[in-house]
Design brief:
367 residues; alpha/beta; Spore Coat Polysaccharide Biosynthesis Protein SpsA, Chain A; 2 domains; 7-stranded mixed β-sheet; 3-stranded mixed β-sheet; 10 strands; binds 2-(butanoylamino)-2-deoxy-beta-D-glucopyranose; glycoprotein; manganese; glycosyltransferase; disulfide bond
Length: 367
């Protein structure tokens, strides 16, 4: 019996050689299908490449003069020619009385933020020629709508601070804020107290200038979109609402950690922040409880505008999870009127004015 004459009982009379042939055909089809699939995927993937990404990156580091021409978030925002003059002020930058516009025309939208190349402080100084000593800035083209003190609790995180300054100074300038940056450095090696440092920042910043808004930011968090404005709103504002660490979302609805902003009025209404949270965790939940107990709500940007990157790091020394935090957050309402800005005590050891920030070294005491 030849192969050709063999019958496949399953196929009802087709020659037995045929399954081999159809297998070959099926394989060819599969290979073709895979190739096609690969091509389509490749095209799709490449179309997703933001070819302007490098421009964005450069844009983020540019002085506002060149940004002034870029007045929308869309594709058409990047000029092919950047004028050399610094005096490019479009009419829509300010209203008739000279106030800055509600939405700054200098914003560019999403930004590329990476922490793999170390940044040099002198590079940052050079890239921000409009800054005044102490990391102060005021837009020259219009009157800023808010006077914002940025308060950063700190201890031994120099490289993180450099990244923060590198990325955030240009963003804050494009946001047309009248702002200053305050690094509140906890002296010594006792347990870290983030919320107390924030209270101290509030008090110390007010000694410098009539700030009406306070942004409280961790040193390792950077905004990925300059439309996420570091300013105050009618309700306390949570700014870092879509952290990469939490999959670009909130870990839980009441989360108020990372970066937040409170007006002077909102801050005083809740008696500031607690001074009694030593070590990691819970102080931000206490702040949330304070806000809720005073009948305020949380204002937030959407989760695209609110994207932020956090620098990966190991837990700091002397900042272990605070075992008392569970008890403390259960009693916010009882303690908040006596633990806060009205019970704050500390000693300023040094106040240094650097080109990009004011550094205040403080003794916060012991747990
Ligand atoms: C929470 C912490 C917050 C912290 C977030 C995100 C507490 C209180 C006891 C439940 N809260 O669990 O402080 O910001 O995680 O890391 O630990």
């Amino acid at each position: 019996m030849t192969l050709g004459s063999m019958k496949d009982p399953q196929l009802g009379g087709s020659p037995a050689a045929l399954p081999g042939a159809s297998l070959q055909k099926a394989c060819k089809f599969l290979v073709l299908f895979c190739a096609l699939h690969l091509c389509v995927t490749l095209v799709y993937y490449m179309s997703g490449w933001d070819l302007r990404i490098f421009h964005y990156f450069v844009e983020n580091q540019q002085h506002q003069a060149s940004s002034l021409i870029n007045s929308t978030y869309g594709d058409d925002m990047l000029p092919s020619v950047v004028p050399s003059t610094t005096d490019v002020t479009p009419a829509h930058t300010k209203d008739i009385v000279g106030n800055c516009a509600e939405t700054s025309p200098l914003l560019v939208g999403p930004l590329r933020v990476e922490f793999n190349i170390p940044v040099e402080i002198n590079e940052i100084i050079k890239a921000n020629p409009s800054l005044m000593e102490g990391g102060r800035y005021k837009p020259s083209e219009c009157k800023a709508l808010q006077k914002v003190a940025i308060i950063i609790p700190f201890r031994k995180r120099e490289s993180h601070l450099n990244y923060w300054l590198y990325y955030m100074h240009p963003v804050l300038q494009r946001q047309q804020l009248d702002y200053g940056v305050y690094i509140i450095n906890q002296d010594g090696s006792n347990t870290f107290n983030r919320a107390k440092l924030l209270n101290i920042g509030y008090m110390e910043a007010l000694k410098d200038y009539d700030y009406d808004c306070f942004v409280f930011s961790d040193v390792d968090i950077v905004a990925m979109d300059d439309r996420n404005i570091y300013r105050c709103f009618s309700q306390p504002r949570h700014i870092s609402v879509a952290l990469d660490k939490f999959g670009f979302g909130l870990p839980y609805y009441q989360y108020f950690g990372g970066v937040s902003a409170l007006s002077k009025e909102q801050f005083t209404k809740i008696n500031g922040f607690p001074n009694t949270y030593w070590g990691w965790g819970g102080e931000d939940d206490d702040i949330y409880n304070r806000i809720a107990s005073k009948g305020m709500s949380i204002s937030r940007p959407d989760s695209v505008t609110g994207k932020c990157r956090m620098i990966h790091h190991n837990r700091d020394d002397k900042n272990d999870p605070n075992p008392k935090r569970f008890d403390l957050i259960a009693r916010t309402r009882q303690t908040m009127n006596t633990d806060g800005i009205n019970s704050l005590s500390y000693n300023v050891l040094r106040r240094e004015n650097f080109p990009l920030y004011v550094k205040i070294t403080v003794d916060v005491g012991n747990p």
